[in-house]
Amino acid sequence: MRVDFYLLSTDPAPAAVALLARKVREAGERLLVVADDLDLLETISTTLWESAPEAFLANGIAGDEHDARQPILLSGEVDPANGAKFLLLADGEWREPSDLFTRVLFLFDDNSRAGARQVWKALESRESVERKFWKQQGGRWVEGP
User: Fold this and answer.
1) Which of 4, 58, 86, 107 is least crowded, fewest Cβ atoms below 10 Å from its Cβ?
2) pLDDT grade, residue 138 (50/70/90)?
3) Is the pTM of this model over 0.90?
4) Backbone phi, then psi, for 129, in 5-degree steps?
5) φ and ψ at 93, to 5 degrees?
C-alpha cells in the first residue's frame, strides 16, 4: 500500500480533496473520503459538485441505499461501501486502513502536523507500505522533504 502525505498550506481541505479526487477518477478508480465532521463532509460534497461545472465530481454522503454506486463516497467511517481502493483522510486524523485499500491520501495542516509526523514514523517500519510526502508550491503539489 502507498500512503501519500499532503501538507495543506495554500488550499483548504475541500479544494485539495477536489483536486485529488479528480486525479483518482481520471485514473478510473473509486474514492472513499473520510472525516469525522459532517459539516466538512457536506462542504467537500458541494465543492466536488461545483469545482468544475463542466466536469463535476459525482459523490454522495454515506448512509443510503446508493452507497455502492457512488464513485466518490464521503463517510465518517473507513468502510468502502462503494468498493473504493483509494482512501482520502480529509481532516488530519489518521485512521488505520484495511487491506482493501491500495492507496491512502492523508491530508494534514499545521495544526495536525505533529500527528502526521508520528504516523510517518510509525509507518516507516512496515515493509508493505511506501510513503511519499507532498507540499503545495505555486498552486501545484510537489514531492518534497
Assistant:
1) 58
2) confident
3) yes
4) -115, 125
5) -105, 125
- Condensed to tens digits (0 to 9), the pLDDT of residues 75-119 reads 999 999 999 999 999 999 999 999 999 999 999 999 999 999 999
Number of residues that make up the chain: 145
- Nearest residue to 58 via CA among 41, 68, 80, 73: 73
118, burial (CB in 10 Å: exposed 0-12, middle 13-18, buried 19+) = exposed
What tens digit of pLDDT does each residue of 30-56 get? Answer: 999 999 999 999 999 999 999 877 778
Q: How many CA atoms lie within 13 A of 25 on its CB side?
A: 18
Longest dimension (CA), the chain: 44
3-state secondary structure of 41: helix
C-alpha cell at 37: 465532521
Q: Which CATH number fits domain 2-143: 3.40.50.10110, 3.40.430.10, 3.40.50.10780, 2.60.120.10?
A: 3.40.50.10110
* Nine-digit cell string for 74: 464521503
Backbone angles phi, psi at 133, to 5 degrees: -120, 135
